[in-house]
Amino acid sequence: MDDQIGRFCWQCLQLDPSPDFPPGKVLRDEQVQELIYNKLFAENAVALHLPQRYRLRILKELTSSIESAIEDWDEHGISDNLMTAMSDLLSAPLPTETVAAQQRCHVTYHLSLLETEPEASIVLLESRSLISAAGTTGLRTWEAALHLGQYLCKNPSLVQDKRVLELGTGTGYIAVMCAKYLGAKQVIASDGSEDVVNNLPDNFFLNGLQGSEGVTASELRWGHALVGTEEQEWNGGKKVNVVLGADITYDVSVIPALVGTLEELVVLSPAVTILIAATERNRATFESFLQVCAKRGFTVTSEKFPVLPRNEQRGPFYSDLTPIHICKLTH
Fold it and tell me: If we measure between CA atoms, which residue out of 312, 289, 306, 258 comes closest to residue 147?
């Protein structure tokens, strides 16, 4: 019972569009209803509330499931707290779907594979629309980042006490994880979009990393020289031990520039470990990435770490229908 409820709550906190509701015979229990209310809907349930439209939809489905499961209203009922929460939402003005789609919202990801901290989570402020008006895809967290994060949670020694550079950091999910939970010595969260880089401090703050010297945001454009005219050495001469990237190979046109940057990083840090997580949405695009790597002298091997079936995931939650490769590059 606890596992079903916990999984449902974590799915809701991640704003999963189709969370798995526990069975009605579980939901009709008064203690279960109070537990869900306290985790998701109470004033002090979470530091950051779920978006109004999402909260209302989940509450409607939840109360409907409870009502359908009740056979004896003398024995079971619907929590007064849940009904009050529903009434408050119904009486409040809700943003239109169009306005809601443009709003940034707080998304909480449960790190279920982090054995040292069972309740570990990362909270990010995201734009849930797929692509922002500025054309960047970096304002939401994509599946490959979630999968790479799971891999790192199972293999924390890869980044512990290491200097880590993330390319195409987006919302900063991987960077935050490395800095907050995996014991990295230094994390550089880099992206080629100025808008994305400017949003990163918000997500550092949400995860208690404000003012931390362990993680910094940096604009880094692939294919451009790492060292500018005003700098004698990149990163103050400190070599990076690990380069990470997730969902950064989806556009064939940028792959040569990406691999060019990887080449330059290998020159600066010859012993660097490079891990790229790539969602195979299009086989031809993935093959293009492999071909460019081969031409530039990189050997690409795939780590054995399949995506868990959806019904076995305990957080974060992401599609199991599309392969996600975790590629290790050596030069």
Answer: 306
